[in-house]
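We treat protein structure as text, and this decision shapes the records that our systems exchange. The tokens are whole numbers drawn from a learned vocabulary of local backbone shapes. One such record is reproduced below, unchanged from the form in which we store it:
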Amino acid sequence: MHLTTLHPLTLSTMTMADHQFILSNVACIDTAKSPHPISTGIGFFDHMIDQLNSHAQIGVAVTVTKSSGETSSSSATSNGDKHSFEFVNRYADEDQGVIMGQVGAALGSQLKELLYKDGEESNSRTSRFCCPLDEALVECVLTKSCSTNTEGKLTKFTLPPYGKYPANKGRSKIGTMKTQFVESFFTNLAQSSGMDISLVKVRGDNGHHVVESAFKAFSRALRNLIDGTDTNNYTSKEFEEIWGEKSVSYTAGLELCREGKLERSTKETSILVHVLMNGLLKGGDSIQVHTGIKTMDDFVAILAKEAKMSVEAKCNGDLYVDDHHTSEDVSIALGQVLNTAFGTKAGLNRMWCATGTYGHAEVEVTMDLSNRPCITHNLSLSSNPNDEEYAGDLSIEMLDHVLESLVMNSKSTVHIVENKAGKTVLETAMATAMAYGAALRMCAAVDPRRAGKTASSKGTLSV
């Protein structure tokens, strides 16, 4: 394999066997859009590369042509049919391993320019991000070395099988893209960028979403790596500059005056829930939760504190029957007012993952304000070691239902991973509340670089 770079943003060529492809208009521009398209000749691959535009906020462009002339694609373009299936997938029957590897190498070289600006060497740095989709969760860890001369490696890659249809094999193609060459793309990108890349499938039954989660997790981890931030570090100077209480993001969030309020009465409950996303500027008395169920009170209060939002939640329910209606209605109402407070979600950070510890429990929540509600978790609720029926004074089956009602009514996608079970389910529940609130805070944060636009490759979350 031979790779020659003629100009960082213009042209690169690669020859493998008797195939030759030319890459032109290769670009990775930080926080800006490229005027050129992504056109590799493999439609689904184009869509995946486009995730860097939306989630890494990097203007990516690359066009693939054949050195022998482009009769079919030239004809398609001249006829104004550049969005036709035939043109977009013009290289579906070519050697996709060569194309995807070449594109990975070329984009990796461009990313290296962003990671090592002006060729400067810096401290090594690690960034981790998990991306939640309704049927997949992939973890990406990026490590940038301190030297510009280091070749990167794909240190871990556990995405296959791509889904469970068929069982134990998964999908061989998504659209026209052959899934076996996703690894080739990331291997070549890692090598030329100087980054070590780890991609681990935490869970996932849908092949399309496994690949999409991987590209989005990579894009988000890359954004954090360039920014110098990480989902595991909230105290760094870089984090404070971008997301801290003196940042433009924090001020912009307060200026939106986001709130949601719901008041309703049924034969089962009378309820009031009011949320102000105000950074808890008024102090601890800004959280007032009185539901008649102490576990619910503590869960909502901890969540609100970690999310840095004021909450007033009052419920007079039929606890003389049981805890079902009260806990369900509080969590439904809280989810609904949060969704109201989020508005269109345009301009928001949208995704984050956070860890909460309480007692012996450690839980990670990965959240996406997606408008596509789904919750997946592995919490030890039915299989808890002490055969507990209650978490404090809340029945464990209702704790499960509280989480589902909250997620579904806030229209979020949430994956919960129990890294370590508590000695009691109550510890696990409170660790979940902490992680949920911390993730919510960062998802709801305003990212001024987005200029009010939605963090989505389709441009909206409303459909």
